[in-house]
Every structure is written in C-alpha cells, then in structure tokens.
Amino acid sequence: MSSMTSTSRFVRRSVLMNSLFLAEGAIMFALDIALAASLGLSAQSDILYAAWSLPVTIGRGMFQSLTNSFMGLFAEADNQMKAYNQAITVIGIVAFVAAALLSLSARWWYPLSVPGATAATKLAGQPLAVILAWLIFVLALAETLRAIYYRSGRLVVPTAGRIVGTGATIAITLLAGAQQDLRLVAWGLLGGAIVETLVGFVGLAWVPDFRLRPSWPERVVLTNMVRSVGMPLTGQGVRVLGSIGERAMASLLGPGVLTAVTFAARLIAIVERFVFRGFQLATIQNYTAGTKQNYHARLRVVALLAVPLSVGLALLAPQLVNAVFARGRFSSDNAHTVAQVLQTYAPAILGLALISIPLGLAYARNLPRVVMLFFVLNTGALLVSEYALIRLGVGLRSFGLANSISAFAGLLWLTRIAAKEDTLWKRVDTSQLLIIAGTAALGTFAVRSLAGLMVSGNLGAWLTLMASGVACLASAGIAARLLRVEEIDQIAGFLRRSPPPSHPG
User: Fold this and answer.
1) CA pair distance 300, 310, nearest whole angstrom
2) How far apart are CA 7 and CA 120, in angstroms?
3) Is 117 in a helix, a strand, or coil?
4) Distance from chain centroid for Cα 320
5) How far is residue 206's CA from residue 270's CA, in Å, rounded to a whole number?
6) Within its chain, how far is the Cα of 13 from the centroid?
7) CB neighbour list of residue 287: distance below 8 Å, 6 or more residues apart
8) Are 53 and 243 in contact (CB under 8 A)?
9) Strands, E assignment, 7-46
C-alpha cells in the first residue's frame, strides 16, 4: 500500500470518527448552554461544577483511557467475546467500589475541592456530591462499552447513547434551572448518564456473536489486564488530582471563576476530544489491524487542521462566548470573563491535537509505562505552571497559559519516547505552519473587523463568528495550497466525495 493511500485512508477513517465525536460534542455543548443560561457565573454555579467535576473527570476522563487501552488489549485476546465480558465485569466492580467510596466521603472531599468557597457554599454542595459520585460507576461502564463497539466496528451506538442521554439531561436542566433546584440538576446529570449506558447495553444485541455473560478473568488474563490498563489508569488518576488542584486554585480567585475556567476547558475539550480524538483512535485501529503507518504525514494532517483552529479561537473567543452563552442569567460581564480564559487556551489546541498521534502509538504498541509517565509529567507541568503564573499575578489567564505550556511540554517528550523516532517532529515543516497561521490570522482579523462595523447584538456575534471562521479556514487552505503542502489535497479530496460507512452498524 502506498504512502498516499495509507494517509488517505487515515484521513477518511479519522473524519468519520471525528464526525461522530463532533455530534457528541454538540449535544454536550448544548448542555453547557442550558446550564449557563440557568445559572450564569455565580457561587451557585460553582457549587454544581465543583460537585460535578471530580466524578465526571474520573468516570468520563479517567476511564476514557480504557477505550484506547482495551482496543489494544482486545486485539491480542484469543477469545474477544470472553475478553469483552471480563472487561465489563472487572471495570464494573472497580467503578462501583470507587463510586461508593466517593459518595460516602463527599462530606470530606467536597470542601477540600473548593477552599475559596464560603462555609454555606461548601455545605450546600455536599448533597450534590453524594448524588454525582455515582457518575463514576455509570460512565465507567459506558466507556468500557465504547471500547467494545469501536473494536467491533460499531461506531454509531455510543454516539447515539451520548446524544439521547444528554438530551434527557438538558430537558431536566431547563426545568430545574427555572426553579433554581440544583439537586434536580444533579439527578438529571446522573439520569442522562444512565440512559447513555442503557443504550450501550441494548446495542450489544447487534455485536456479532456477543452474549452478555459477566465473568471474572483468570489470574494470567487479569495480570495482563492490570498491566495494560492499570498504568494508563494510574496516569489518568494523577490527571484527576491535577484537575482537583486546578479547580481548587480557581475557587481562590473569587465567585464564578471556577465556572468560567470550567466553561473554557469544556469548550477546548470539544475541539480536542471530539475533533482530534478520531485521529488518535484511527492510529490505534490501523496499528492493531496491521495497516502500514505513515506517522509523519499524519502529524502534518493534524497540524494543518489544528493551526487555523488555534488562530480562530484566539481571535474569535469573545464572539464565540457571546454567541453561545449570552442569554438568561449569563451576562455580558460573564461572557467577557470566560472569553479572557478561553483566548489563553488557544495555543493548547495545537499541542493537544499533535499529541493525538504519538499518544495513539503508545496505546497501540501497548506501552502502558509511557502512557502513565506522559500523564504524570503533563499534570506536573500543568500544576507548577498554574501556581507560578497565579503567584506572578496573571490571574484568570493563568489556567489557559498553563495548559498550553504543559501541552507542548508533553508533546516534545512524547514524540521522542512513544514514537521511537527522533525525526518525527522534525519532518513537520514549522516554517510552513507559521506562514499558514499568519495567513489565517490576517483573513480572520479582516473579516471580523468588517463584520463588527456592520452587525451587532447576539445575531451579530453569530454572523461575525461564522463569517470569520470561514475566512480563517479558507485563508489557511489557500496558504497551504500555495505552499504545495501535499496533505491539503488529501483532505480536500475526501471532503469532495462521500465516503462509504466503515461498517453497516
């Protein structure tokens, strides 16, 4: 298979998966909009997000690494159906115990997560923490099922579950927000996750030859599972501690700051997790399937997409926040606060996007120690940077800048260690990327300035955002074409045709 064919196939598979992730991101985005309109940036919103952040980080973020780890592990299993059942059993038991412990200990960990909050705020958040702790159990099962679906080529079911579950949560949130009932919001968040997981279990009926028969693995299998999954989970556990530290520092800067940082981080997560994660999973799938890899080309494809997105976010953050969130109890001052944080996250998009390829390689090559060390070093760089920047008086912008610093630090280490290719990054022409970034910035700035003179209000923010976003991508594409970047032809060629689905399911 030629290099061009391999890269084209990679682009096709990645775009298909990213499309599904983007659909998931859109519905999660809608949930954030509903919460912002109901609560705004306030001490009350901080109560909810402080109780929600830790369980969802563990259940969704920490156990999401299972999707990657299990895909490599399932590929090595002699009996994949048996391996699926064993994975569901082990993760279900571990996650249930973790959820129970977190729920029972809410009175201790919740106040520690918001040291800057008042005593009344800390007391009000504890009942929410008790409820939301069970997200760990529910979401861990959902992510384990996701790994099974991805390994079997059934990509649609997990996305459908996410959309249906989050849709139910939005309906409950709008009702609860009108009544300012945070406990009902918490039950809505948990209920939506339960619906998502139930959809996942129902969909197993369409996985060929699969029967749900929970079973405990043999000692040798369990040892292999712990080795392959345990270290990445440990690394993600360190990342969870980092998230706790980040939220704690945000709470010290005043009411609403924790919510502002959370909103900005979730917007970045939509881009990183639901746009670029498809590249990571495509890398894992191709490697486990024995498909010839061209990592340099793949890194360039990701860079071509990430550069204009980073530029666009840096220049259009105020318009994005105003267009999306400026309604209900979310004021213009709230929008300005979130935009300040969001702009400083823009460089992190490029770093996080480029990480997707070497990190996917580490998972595919079953290098759990590398994955664990990456998360440990990345989290350490994040917390040290945040603390130093806050001490220097940078304030709100500390969080985005620290995430950008840690992303590039992790990228430099990971491309050298995980890929085992000293030249992996050197093959990416940074001068071309700088020219593309500059061209995208000029196009975006010009259209944004022109649109700002012609329109105003929330509708104006939407029009400015869309017109400037198109200008950003078009300018970057034209620059790449003039520079004769060959990967731009593969991206454009894919977009001009409708590819067949990867699997009937």
Assistant:
1) 15
2) 56
3) coil
4) 18
5) 29
6) 19
7) 293, 360, 361, 364, 365
8) yes
9) none
179 backbone dihedrals φ, ψ, rounded to 5°: -95, 0
> What is the full per-residue pLDDT of the chain (505 aa) written as tens digits?
455 555 566 566 666 666 777 777 778 878 888 888 777 777 778 888 888 888 887 877 677 666 666 655 665 555 677 777 888 888 889 889 999 999 999 888 888 877 877 788 788 889 999 999 999 999 989 988 887 887 777 778 888 888 998 888 888 877 776 666 888 889 989 999 999 999 999 888 877 777 788 778 777 667 766 766 677 777 777 877 787 788 888 888 888 888 888 888 888 877 776 667 777 777 776 665 555 556 677 777 788 888 888 998 889 888 888 887 877 778 888 888 888 888 888 888 888 888 887 887 777 777 778 878 888 888 889 999 999 999 898 888 899 899 889 988 888 787 766 555 444 455 556 788 888 888 989 988 898 888 877 777 667 778 888 898 899 988 988 888 888 777 676 565 544 444 433 333 3
* pTM, two decimal places: 0.71
Q: Which own/partner pairs from 258-262 qualify as long-range (CB within 8 Å, at least 24 positions apart)?
A: 258/46, 258/49, 258/50, 258/114, 259/39, 259/41, 259/42, 259/45, 259/46, 259/49, 260/41, 260/334, 260/337, 260/338, 260/341, 260/396, 261/341, 261/396, 261/399, 262/49, 262/53
Question: For residue 384, which phi and psi values (nearest 5 degrees)?
Answer: -65, -45
Q: Which residues contact 211 (CB under 8 A, 6 or more apart)?
A: 81
Q: What are the Cα distances from residue 185, in Å, to 47, 123, 365, 420?
A: 12, 17, 41, 47
Beta-carbon count within 10 A of 119 CB:
8
CB atoms within 10 A of CB 416: 15
- Phi then psi for residue 102, to 5 deg, are -70, -40
Residues 225 and 447: their CA atoms lie apart, in Å, by: 53
Are 254 and 269 spatial neighbours (Cβ–Cβ below 8 Å)?
no
Q: Structure tokens of 260?
A: 């502002």
| Domain boundaries of the chain, sorted by first residue | 43-230
- CA dihedral (308, 495, 152, 166) positive or negative: positive
| CB 214, CB 85: distance < 8 Å | yes
DSSP assignment of 291-314, as one string? ----HHHHHHHHHHHHHHHHHHHH
Secondary structure string (H, E, C) spanning 357-381 = HHHHHHHHCCCHHHHHHHHHHHHHH
CA-wise closest residue to 157 among 201, 119, 109: 201
Distance CA 193, CA 168 (A): 9
Separation of first and last alpha carbons in the chain: 27
Calculate ∠ Cα 327-172-187, nearest 5°.
120
